[in-house]
Amino acid sequence: MCYADTITEIDGTVTAYCCCGWVEHEHTPESADIAAETHQNTPNDESPIAAA
């Protein structure tokens, strides 16, 4: 199971990331929260990271 979170960068953008290695840069706070929640709730067999 993934545990995604977000962090605000010094330039004001927000990065969504996960302990599994998934990361998405240059979000707004709202879109980063959505991306992290979506990633966290995606079954592992449907995750782009798991498919790689």
Task: Please explain how this structure is put together.
The chain is built from 2 helices and 3 strands, in the order E-E-E-H-H. It is α+β, with helices and mostly antiparallel strands and 52 residues long. The radius of gyration is 11 Å and the shape is elongated. The model has no long low-confidence stretch (mean pLDDT 87).
Key features of this structure:
single chain; 52 residues; alpha+beta; 3-stranded antiparallel β-sheet; elongated
Give average pLDDT, whole number.
Answer: 87
Q: Give me the number of helical elements.
A: 2
Strand fraction equals 25-35%
Low-confidence stretches: none
Query: Would you report the number of β strands?
Result: 3
Query: Could you say which structural class the secondary elements and strand pairing correspond to?
Result: alpha+beta
Rg on CA atoms, Å: 11 Å
Largest sheet: spatial strand order: 1-2-3
Distance between the termini: 17 Å
**Helical amount among residues, as a percent range?**
25-40%
Secondary-structure element pattern, one letter each:
EEEHH
Region (Disordered): 31-52
How is this structure best summarized?
With 52 residues, this protein is α+β, with helices and mostly antiparallel strands.
Give the secondary structure arrangement, pairings included.
Elements: E1 4-8, E2 14-18, E3 23-27, H1 29-41, H2 48-51
Antiparallel strand pairs: 1-2, 2-3
